[in-house]
Amino acid sequence: LQITGLIFGGVGMVGTLAATAMPQWRVSAYVDGNIVVFETIWEGLWMDCISQLGLRLQCKLYDSMLALPPPLEAFRALMCVAVGLSIISFLMAIVGVKYTQHSKDGPQAISVFILAAGVAFLLTGTLVLIPVSWTGGSIIRDFYDPEVPTPLKRELGAALYVGWASTALLLAAGAMYCHF
Predict the structure, then answer these.
(1) Whole domain around residue 175: which residue ranges?
(2) What is this structure's pTM?
(3) What is the CATH number of the domain that holds 81?
(4) pLDDT digits (tens, 9 = 90+) for 83-106
């Protein structure tokens, strides 16, 4: 169970890092009957990208942190904290598993490392879930809002799915470690 939790936590950590770095949080939606699509727009936490015919990709980092909308600033901060905490959680889990295999003191000696890793994984999963779900909810709300112009409508991007999968793995790893 500890090794499974370590694998889930490691994959969740990598997924958290990937979701934070990916520019596909919000992807342009093609709502009308227009089949000819020349550009795809991606909006992420750190940059916007435009893909032209799937051949040419241009990305531009956001110019100023102060010019960003407050939710985006908060999502950046939460995801950065989640990345750091996931790395710390994973390292604590490694120490806990290693200490468990070499300990002669019994289950009381391992509970501190394992429990700390479990709580940290649960907290990390929650930190990832907040910005990913909030962004997903706002995309869906804007998509069905008739007052939002069609060119501004977006769909759920791949980074959100990676974030949700990472959340599930991190919460599962945390539950496994808190079970001990």
Answers:
(1) 1-22+70-179
(2) 0.88
(3) 1.20.140.150
(4) 999 999 999 999 888 877 655 555
Residue 44 and residue 76: Cα distance in Å, rounded?
Answer: 10
- In the sheet that holds 26-28, the strands lie side by side as 56-61, 47-52, 39-43, 26-28, 154-156
Structural domain includes residue 175: yes
Residue 108 placed within a domain: yes
CA atoms within 13 A on the CB side of 152: 9
The tokens for 89 are 């959680």
Longest CA span, the chain: 68
